[in-house]
Amino acid sequence: MRSSILLAMKIYTKAGDDGTTALLGGGRVAKSDRRLDCYGTIDELNAALGVAAAWVAGDAELGGMIRAIQNELFTLACHLAAPDAAGGAAAKLPALDESMINRLEMQIDAAEAELPALREFILPGGSEGAARLHFARTVCRRAERLVVCFSQDRPVAGIILTYLNRLSDWLFVQARAANRRAGVGDVVWEKA
Fold first, then answer.
1. CA gap 63, 40 in Å, rounded
2. Between the CA atoms of 53, 57, 59 and 63, what dihedral angle is there, to the nearest 10 degrees?
3. Which end of the chain is more exposed for a tag (fewer CB within 10 A), N or C?
């Protein structure tokens, strides 16, 4: 029943033809608003993770971890799209919970336990799966920078910043683990 409702909706509304977009809970802002840069970049990160997940489709464990993160990123973006963080539309969204960060940290620790100690800077690359995860990491760092800038004059839940920071660490470690699983070494930075 639900899918038939979605199929009946048009993808275009024409409401944004004037260069504005609706926020969750009401109100409209210019599509150039910094808020949209934040959640748009999180959407880009989510898409980059979708590409990485497609590449590692044979690794059900990593695919499952990525899928959980994609759902959490969607929730983060929704919270950023809700201008009233204390109530209204934000109150109806899934909660942002410290357990998300704790899970990332546990997964980082588990992956690091299987990796050789890192003693040099490495370049993004190695196996294709690792390269895709490294690319997602750079998008994550950009999203984090944008949210930090946005948070300087508008309220942003601190957990969003913490999550993005931890996620970039998670992506770095998972890229290294992807290289290990592929039998490919990390690409070491060669100082001139």
1. 23
2. 30
3. C
Interatomic CA distance for residues 164 and 157, integer angstroms:
12
The reported pLDDT for the residue numbered 67 is 97
Residue 147 CB burial class (10 angstroms; 0-12, 13-18, ≥19): buried
Condensed to tens digits (0 to 9), the pLDDT of residues 112-163 reads: 999 999 999 999 999 999 999 999 999 999 999 999 999 999 889 999 999 9
Q: Given the structure tokens 């839940």, which residue do they identify?
A: 157
Distance of CA 80 to the CA centre of its chain: 13
121: which residues sit within 8 A by CB, 6+ positions away? 188, 189
- Specify the DSSP class assigned to residue 4: H
Per the listing, tokens 């979708």 go with 50
Could you tell me the pTM of the whole model? 0.87
